[in-house]
Structures are given as structure tokens and as C-alpha cells.
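Lab notebook, bench 4. Continuing the backlog of folding jobs that were queued last week. Each job is logged with the same field layout so the records can be merged later without manual cleanup. Today's entry covers Response regulator, a 128-residue chain. Filled in by technician R.K.

JOB TYPE: sequence-to-structure
TARGET: Response regulator
LENGTH: 128
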Amino acid sequence: MAKKILVIEDDRDIRESVTYMLESDGYEVTASDNSRILRSLPDIAPDLILLDNWLTDWASDASGQQISKELKSDPKTSHIPIIILSAVNNVAEIAEAGLADAYIKKPFDVDELLALVKKYISEAPPAP
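JOB STATUS: finished
OUTPUT FIELD FOLLOWS
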């Protein structure tokens, strides 16, 4: 059974490229341009989340960092590895403050992204 990845990225080109890369590598991908998809998180049951740090739809101005911190602080979702995607220079600090498992800076190398995904999917503990 294919591992499931949730991609939340508001830039359509990046979202479609990442989805294509991951599906080509054998993953089942659910992609969204906004964070409202998180309402369906129990139904999606992802093995990993790729989360853009700057989501323009978030009404409360929450960032990927804040969303990651909320997910990592919730016992129901804390086991899901989260990789933050961002073009900002301080993405390492953003990921750390958001309790994310990893980060990747845009623009990113395809092989680097796939290696990071593979690492965190293979290390992911089972859902509680």
C-alpha cells in the first residue's frame, strides 16, 4: 500500500510539480492550495505533511509554522512528520519553532526533496 502524503502549497506550479514528483515516486498524494484541507485530516490519514510556510488563505494570518506547532502539539496528530517548505532565509528557525521534523528551502532540488520525504516516511511511528 502506497504511503500517503498531504501537500499544502498555495502556489499552483509548485503544488503540481511536487504532486507529480511524489506520485512518480509511488506515493499517494492529496494536495490542497489552502489549510482548510486539515479539517479532513482524519479521513486523509497522511503518513507525512509537506506544508508551505506562507499560506495566503489563512484568515487568522497563521503560518505554516503555527499550523505545524498546533499539529505537533496535538496527541492525535503529533506522530505525523511535517516538512515545512519556504523561500525565506530563516526557514531552519521557522521549522524549529513550529516543531516541524524538517524543512526544505525553495527553490529545492527534486532529489533532495524525495530523499527527505523517504527518510521521514520510513522513520514515522505508527498512528496512535
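OBSERVATION: The chain has five helices and five strands.
SIGNED: R.K.
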